[in-house]
Amino acid sequence: MTTDEIEAFLQAAFNRCDAESCPLTDTQKQILLQVVEEIQNYCSAVVLDVANPLDELTEEELQTFLEFVKTAEEHKLSWKMQLLNDWLHNDDSGAVQFIRDRYGLEWLNRVEPIHFEKYASLDTLKLKVGSRIEVCNALWEWVQDSGPCQREWFSCTVVFVDETFSSCTIRFNNGSEYEIQGLYEWNRYNWRWAAS
Predict the structure, then answer these.
(1) Which member of 135, 150, 167, 185 has the lowest number of beta carbons within 10 Å of its beta carbon?
(2) Are the C-beta atoms of residues 118 and 149 closer than 8 Å to each other?
């Protein structure tokens, strides 16, 4: 469930309270919204820390796999499709044959772009048109980690990528669009892969 959907449900609950002559104060509403955001952030962290299939690989396997993925991305190929085609045609997958031999299709199906987030310093995956990401309000607002304004995350879809200038255009659920400059350089801290 996205943050926007949760906020819509909470707003509906607030309206019900008003209709039942039991309205919440603005402070109470803000507290509820903050608690839900904290729960969502905690759940995202748990998903990243506990259920990351990449953590099941040995250090050597992980390095080999990440290099394979990065090479496929550089050639604008789908690394997952390459593996699945090899498996379908019973072809050898070269250095990453161990994925099929040791981990299998179930493991491969569990790997999502968000799982590479932990290894973001390796810059393995590149954004593509259609990628689902979350962006932080720090892109358009002055937000400090220890300041009065908190970082908030918003779901969106990538609608245009310009690799030459390392930028992309995203579309929010409400239809508005925003361009992100310095996608992999200075603004990498302000976006993350969306959980499936």
Answers:
(1) 185
(2) no
Q: Please tell me whether residues 36 and 71 are part of one structural domain.
A: no
Total domains, the chain: 3
The single-letter DSSP state of residue 193 is E
Both tokens of 159, joined, read 């609608």
Show which of 122, 140, 161 is a domain's final residue: 122
Mean pLDDT over 7-31 rounds to 84
Same domain (yes/no): 41, 60? no
pTM of the model: 0.50
Please provide residue 103's backbone torsions phi and psi, each rounded to the nearest 5 degrees.
-110, -35
The verdict on 141 and 152 lying in the same domain is yes
Say if CB 170 and CB 133 are below 8 A apart. yes
d(CA 105, CA 125): 20
* CB-CB contact of 191 with 133 (8 Å): yes
